[in-house]
Design goal:
The protein is an alpha+beta fold. The chain folds into 2 domains: 4-121, Glutamine synthetase, N-terminal domain (Ubiquitin-like (UB roll), Roll); 132-452, 2-Layer Sandwich (Creatine Kinase, Chain A, domain 2). Helix content is 38%, strand content 22%. It has helices at 4-12, 16-27, 54-60, 126-139, 179-184, 186-198, 224-244, 281-302, 308-311, 358-375, 401-410, 412-418, 420-438, 442-452; strands at residues 32-38, 44-50, 62-65, 88-93, 99-100, 107-115, 143-158, 167-170, 203-208, 214-219, 222-223, 248-250, 264-272, 275-276, 321-326, 331-336, 346-349. Strands 7, 8, 9, 10, 11, 12, 13, 14, 15, 16 and 17 form an 11-stranded mixed beta sheet that branches. Strands 1, 2, 3, 4, 5 and 6 form a 6-stranded mixed beta sheet that branches. A hairpin with a 6-residue loop joins strand 5 and strand 6. Helix 6 (186-198) crosses helix 7 and helix 8 packs across helix 11 (401-410). The radius of gyration is 21 Å and the shape is globular.
């Protein structure tokens, strides 16, 4: 039987791909490499290694306390069994995700799995959850292609006049899609596009959105795991470029209470080889049926913060009702019209934002959709009007994080998929956030969320 030391030593032998990575780091002047992960609070965290130790750390990873997966977005550690002061995991990076960071010269990043010291998967790792969901989907004969469609608010972070948490002052007050919004944010947007493209994130489109200082810059779709990795790098880049320009960018759902919220709508297409099976109305309907059946619970993972529920209200174009419809931007699941000749059908999940952990979010969506296909769930009649105009016809989405967490805890399919440790930790972290914000005003809530997201 191979010992732990032998296993680690075996992992550490650099193959051609790793050797090329090490050479690239040297050629591009990388001094520090960040190993990034998303925690149960939805915060992107990590540690960095020096280039001198990179070859070693690619195999062994960097040591990390298990307790960090019981930390909420306020840096408050929760009491979760097996996630206390005793225990160690490793941040083990995926070399395929290596990118120099244009906004931080001398630095690069990789997305990491959290693994046990012997190199085996850890039951609380969010990225492993998505990998397992992808594998289960592949066993059923399918692959999923996805893209997050994020919005963010650009401005400057200033102290509150009342002495509370910092507030975000938008860069402009331009109108939705207006030319002034392009011009005001032009220097930032061009730098952002360059930085994203340099990391292999292909920009699809960008425009000023409805809120003051609000921008939307979308990147191209990718296989599910890569799409989630891309969203981690995207979030870091949006904020990193802003910081280098003495600004602040927030992807929080509602960083400014009286302005439009920031979504990260999730676009999905399902494939068998080169065939988009969503072209089959029946299979597409079953997948939608699964999403709708699990949507109250899904919302706890796709809209994972107290702040999310300021955005999920009727007539906000963010979805507030459990329904689907063709090009219906108030339905929770929108069936998108294909673009141009040969365009592919995809679904857009509206209740989704960047305070969610993208691995838990997308993994749960896969499990919900697959459950719909297996059970051939009927999605019901499509909504062709604003669902808020027909009171009582469509069920309401959860109106608060505690309500969504209750739905998640009662959802046998998603709880089983998450597994005991991951589910226990996620519920503990998110319930603690709900309690922490319950007695606070909007300024405190929004200030803390713009800091975290």
């Amino acid at each position: 039987m191979m010992t732990v030391r032998q296993r680690v030593t075996k992992i550490q032998q650099p193959g051609p791909a790793v050797q090329r990575l090490l050479e690239r780091a040297e050629i591009e002047g990388v001094e520090l490499v960040r190993f990034l992960y998303a925690d149960h609070g939805g915060v992107i965290r990590g540690k960095a290694t020096s280039r001198a130790r990179l070859a070693e750390r690619l195999g062994s990873g960097i040591g990390h306390t298990v307790a960090m997966l019981a930390m909420n977005m306020l840096d408050q550690l929760q009491q979760v069994e097996h996630l206390g002061p005793v225990g160690e995991v490793r941040l083990v990076p995926d070399p395929e995700t290596f990118v120099p960071l244009p906004y931080s010269p001398g630095a690069a990043a990789m997305v990491a799995d959290l693994r046990l010291p012997d190199g085996s998967p850890w039951a609380a790792c969010p990225r492993t959850f998505l990998k397992e969901a992808v594998a289960e989907l592949e066993q059923a004969g399918y692959t999923l292609v996805a893209a997050f469609e994020p919005e963010f608010t650009l401005g400057r972070r200033l102290p509150s006049p009342e002495g509370g948490p910092d507030r975000l002052v938008p860069l402009d007050d331009s109108l939705c899609y207006a030319g002034t919004g392009f011009d005001t944010a032009h220097d930032y947007t061009v730098r952002l596009v360059h930085a994203l493209e340099a990391q292999g994130l292909r920009v699809e489109h960008c425009h000023p959105e409805l809120g003051a200082g609000q921008q939307e810059v979308s990147i191209r779709h990718a296989p599910a795991l890569r799409a989630a990795d891309n969203h981690v790098l995207y979030r870091e880049t949006v904020r990193g470029v802003a910081l280098r320009m003495a600004m602040w960018a927030s992807l929080a759902p509602k960083p400014i209470p009286d302005q439009a919220g920031n979504g990260a709508h999730l676009h999905l297409s399902l494939w068998q080889g080169s065939v988009n099976v969503f072209a089959d109305e029946q299979v597409r309907g079953w997948f939608i049926g699964g999403l709708l059946a699990h949507l109250p619970a899904l919302t706890a993972l796709t809209c994972g913060s107290v702040n999310s529920f300021r955005r999920l209200a009727p007539r906000m174009w963010s979805s507030a009702y459990i329904c689907h419809g063709p090009d219906n931007r108030e339905a929770a699941v929108r069936v998108c019209s294909p673009l141009g000749e040969g365009g592919e059908i995809n679904l857009e999940l509206k209740p989704s934002d960047s305070s969610a952990n993208p691995y838990l979010s997308l993994g749960a969506v896969i499990h919900a959709g697959l459950d719909g296909i297996r059970r051939r769930l009927d999605p019901g009649e499509a909504a062709t009007v604003d669902p808020d105009t027909v009171p009582g016809r469509y069920p309401r989405l959860p109106a608060s994080l505690p309500e969504a967490l209750d739905a998640l805890e009662a959802d046998e399919v998603l709880m089983a998929a998450l597994g005991p440790l991951r589910a226990q930790a996620y519920l503990a972290v998110k319930r603690s956030e709900a309690v922490a914000f319950a007695g606070q005003n909007a300024a405190y809530e929004c200030g803390q969320h713009l800091r975290a997201f």
